[in-house]
Amino acid sequence: MQALQPLSTGQQEFDQIRTKGMTYVDKTPFIWRILQTLQPFFFLSRPRRFGKSLLINTLKELFLGRKELFDGLYIYDKIQWETYPVLHFDFSNMDFKNKGLGKAIHDRLKAIAHSYNISLQEDTIGSMFAELMATLHEKTGKQTVILIDEYDKPLTDVLEVGENKQAHEHRNILRSLYSVVKGSSAHIRFFFMTGISRFSKLSLFSDLNNLTDLTYFADFHDICGYTQEELETNFAPHLQNAADYQGVTLQELLQQVKRWYNGYSWNGKSKVYNPYSILRFLDAKEFRNFWFDSGTPKFLIEILKNRMVYDISNIQISMAEADNFDIDNLSLETLLFQTGYLTIKEIDRFKRYRLAYPNLEVEESMTQYILAAYAGNNKTSLAYEIVIAVEKHDIEKLIQTINALFAAIPYQLFDQHRERYFHAILFLAFKLCGFYIQSEISVATGRIDAVMHYENRIYVFEFKLNDSAENALQQIREKGYYNAYLNQGKEIYLLGIGFDSQSRTVADWKLEQV
Prior knowledge:
Elements: H1 14-19, H2 28-35, E1 41-45, H3 52-63, E2 86-90, H4 96-99, H5 101-115, H6 125-140, E3 144-149, H7 153-156, H8 165-178, E4 188-195, H9 201-204, E5 212-213, H10 228-234, H11 236-246, H12 250-261, H13 275-284, H14 290-293, H15 298-306, E6 315-318, H16 319-323, H17 332-338, E7 343-347, E8 352-356, H18 360-375, H19 383-391, H20 395-406, H21 411-417, H22 419-432, E9 436-443, E10 446-454, E11 457-465, H23 469-479, E12 491-500, E13 505-513
Parallel strand pairs: 1-4, 1-5, 2-3, 3-4, 11-12
Antiparallel strand pairs: 6-8, 7-8, 9-10, 10-11, 12-13
């Protein structure tokens, strides 16, 4: 078998990828397009592990004039190759947690100055930054290139439920650094900043209001991530290798890969793959939750739990809401979108975004994390017993499993939310099992608690707290909750469930076929 080209799994250094012959998806057409504009200040927001660091490293090597690394790439013969002084800040590698943010930035500025044999006289990070840009310009005769990767990591890493004291401290430190950029524009050839979130410019970039934000630009939608064409063109041997390993055809594999890892969109039309997940999949040749398991913020799960939000699969927000990431007033919808747990499925004529899970990897993982937060980490495995019960249409077994899930819930939490907690556990458990379930469906006669579809069966649920299953069934019948599902050629079952708040168990249930 012919040796496969090495994959750049976890590698973010452009020079290493090129010198070691790793597979590189050519994104230099986008860089060339950026360089054709007269505007030198740019910003791009994308979720974590989405290729932002590789993009920054590519820009670094380009402005350092390392033409040999670009041989065979689109941009190789398109530009005048020159060497510029580069100031590269990667906040994911600055050890601000141990040093403190101010000291970490101070050390980085000193290190860059030392690499250019410059001795800085100023002592505050803002004045040091301004001095470094001016001195490098004067010394080299070339304007500086500023590349800032993961600018918001000092903020997102310390966000928490409740007071965000440290986030405010870090914001003030970052503001003092960026405040000198606009005033130093005469010394700047090119400025590019990346991050996960798009914090309000008024809260962080009060003086940096001249950034061109590429996040939603149609021409730059695919600057990070892999398109379907890029995947099939650049990784054809690896895909065939994975298909052979799994014993399926290439087309069958591609359908599964698309379902698991494709779907990220910033315009509701074009879709890209998460590079990290794809590279890890091609390496392992097995479908797993690679991106999600590489780091999910606990505070995000805590917010979902505290606000009793469990169904995030279909949310609508305005464009302004999608952009307004404010540490003083965290919007859950904005948080989920900008961090990549939800993506744009469509944009209506009023410029409202419909957000949903991008793919199976994120949906399955997020459901499991939320269920673990609600029902206890040691009980999520019970959810899979529901699969067997539903497959066999064994409602008694289904109720037993539901009761086992509820046994793990701290009584304080249940007493606070009661019936909604019950809804949440059932919804998440069914969804984790892969069933198509909808909750709190509004119809003309009222609101259905839940409807679940499985093969040729449809289950219509009504839950009652401290009331009988018969009364629950009676409500379904009287309000005709099942009418919309008639004439579909499927069996329809009405399931009334009576839940006892004292014992926190299903005390009574009744099943009836229409």
